[in-house]
Amino acid sequence: MTDLGDLDDPYHGVHPAVPQAGYERLTWQEPDPRCDRVRVRDHTCECQHIVYELCQAGGLHFIRRLYRSDCVVEHQSDWLRAPEAERLWLRILLGQAR
To answer: Does 67 reside within a domain?
Structure first.
């Protein structure tokens, strides 16, 4: 039988890498309620002060950035086609963009 470890431990999601030298500074915007429903396709770990979400709505994708302190401050990237958003998501996870 395989040892699966302690299944009662809380799951921690992906932690984005620290920003790399020369990382791209993204232009973050105020949330734009373009659609009634937004699907979160992927997200970084909730234990972090800043949480990133890869979102989909209305046939497009965008990255949502949530700052968590006394309140939640939300920003979002440009709305992109799926392949472009997936590349941006990967660059954020690798610390190549913030």
So the answer is: yes
